[in-house]
Amino acid sequence: MSEVVHESNYDSLLDAFSPLKNRLNWLLLAVPVTLFFNIQGNVEMTFLFSMISIMPLAFLMGHATEEIALRAGENLGGLLNATFGNAVEIIIASIAIYTAFSDPDQAETMIVLVQASLIGSILGNLLLVLGLALLWGGIKFKIQSFNQSALSMNGSLLLLAILALIIPAAAHHTGSNVTDENILELSRYASLALLVMYGLSLFFQFKTHSDLFHSTEGESSHHEEPKMSIKNAWALLILATILVGYMAELLVHSVDKAASEWGMPTLFIGVILLPFFGNAAEHFTAVIVAGKDKMDLSLAIAIGSSVQIAVFVAPLMVLFAWIMGVGLSLEFGLLETAATFMGVLVANFILNDGKTNWLEGAMLLACYVILALSFLLIPFEVGA
Questions:
Q1: What are the C-alpha distances in Å from 255 to residues 27, 36, 238?
Q2: Do 379 and 265 form a contact (C-beta atoms < 8 A)?
Q3: Which of 20, 126, 159, 346 is least enclosed by beta carbons within 10 angstroms?
Q4: How many independent structural domains does the chain possess?
Q5: What is the DSSP letter of 291?
Q6: At CA 351, angle to CA 314 and CA 363, rounded to 5?
Q7: What does DSSP assign to residue 356?
Q8: Nearest Cα residue to 127 out of 308, 376, 362, 380
Q9: Strand positions, DSSP E, 112-266
Q10: Do the domain assignments include residue 384?
Q11: Count of Cβ atoms closer than 10 Å to residue 2 Cβ
Q12: Are 198 and 160 a contacting pair, CB within 8 Å?
């Protein structure tokens, strides 16, 4: 295959940041605005614009990962997308855990933020992104079908992750002799089991049963040419990751004061706002391809991302917190656990027949709106 880009040509790297090539890049102006308000000591505006700036930066990270994946082959490319697809959540959660370690006074707020953002990412991808994809695709096509075999594995993995969330919450609220240390120990060993299961699922998907995951639409037969050199793609990924990390640090340290100033629950910010701004740009691709009747790809993005958060990122953060001496458990609270369980249940039922339509998308969106209102209006705290 002839090379379509030149290693010495940096035009593609500059184009990646150009608002003339992608209008979302206008939001990159939020980065210097965030720095300005941070210098001025305006915590509320620092939080707002750091959250906005993460959206285009997350999109750039996704774009760079896709360019690298195009050169890495199907199996390794899929693993790269799985690893970097939820990098924003990993960065935000890691910084919050480190903040809880370095400043015990903020530990409770940081744990709330980590748990809420993880739950929010699962619900956002499973209900909001998938709901919009089914609705948009259903408007253009009366009935859409997809590879049921591939979806069944992801649905089962999600239910397995929900089991790991339900048991600690149920144990804590039904056993009078259950201590926080018992819940932490259970969460840490359950996290190890989930990570092993995630590794086995990758081996199953990319090695032993890769034939089950072939697209029914023939979309995988279309080979997309890379638009950037490998050097430029890595440069873009590294730069975008550094900027996301810095914006996330400013966001994490300003979230508590911003929440109190705006009279907004920290839980709502973590569950609804952070995942929306962190995932919207990158995962909007799921909606676009659904409108092209490529439902296998659309579901792989929306459902696959929820699986990665539930079975990989959440347990990884529990183990990282364990290493740091921070008491992060899988007990995310009754409201959060119930919301996630019902979200997974509704999505599994809707997708059970291997076909979708616009009404099913509307149902998922209605579920998301109801849950969002519950996190906004009901004064629950994580672990309550």
A1: 20, 17, 25
A2: yes
A3: 20
A4: 1
A5: T
A6: 90
A7: E
A8: 362
A9: 144-145
A10: no
A11: 4
A12: no
Q: Is the dihedral of CA 98, 194, 64, 147 positive or negative?
A: negative
**Does residue 57 lie in a domain region?**
yes
Residues of the chain by 3-state class (helix, strand, coil), percent to 5: 80, 0, 20
Structure tokens at 371: 């849950």
| pLDDT tens by residue, 314-327 | 999 999 999 999 98
Residue type, 19: P
Report if residue 236 sits inside a domain. Answer: yes
Q: What is the DSSP letter of 226?
A: P
Task: Kindly report the length of the chain.
Answer: 384
Which residues, other chains included, contact 327 with Cβ-Cβ below 8 Å and sequence gap of 6+?
107, 111, 180, 184, 321
Whole-number Å distance between alpha carbons of 244 and 237? 10
Which tokens sit at 300? 């792989």
Containing structural domain, residue 70:
11-377
Phi, then psi, of 143 in degrees rounded to 5: -130, 135
Q: Which of 76, 34, 9, 68 is nearest to 244 (CA)?
A: 34
Q: Are 252 and 92 in contact (CB under 8 A)?
A: yes
Is 275 within a domain?
Answer: yes
Task: Determine contact, residues 121/347, Cβ cutoff 8 Å.
Answer: no
Strand-pairing partners, residue 145, are: 355
CA distance 177 to 175: 5
Residues 6+ apart with CB under 8 A from 189: none
